[in-house]
Amino acid sequence: MEDLEVGILEYEIAGEFLADIRKEFGGENKESTKIAELKRLEQGGKIIEKFVQEFRRAARGSRYKGRPVVEKFKKGINTTIC
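Given the sequence above, the corresponding structure tokens read:
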């Protein structure tokens, strides 16, 4: 199966793409899901651009705004970048 590329996110299988669509638009407790995703989101070995994109997607629809969202971002990036 060909890779599906959306922005800079790449999906090797359609299931990953559909799971991200469900995370973004579905669910009864969307805010709770977004908050939980923000809490566990880490850059790890990803390039910073990919992490930023994932973080922005997770932050949309969460209750975090302003300083709290910045603190969550800082907590998720690699410590060498901080």
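The chain has one domain: 4-76. Try to locate this feature in the token string yourself.
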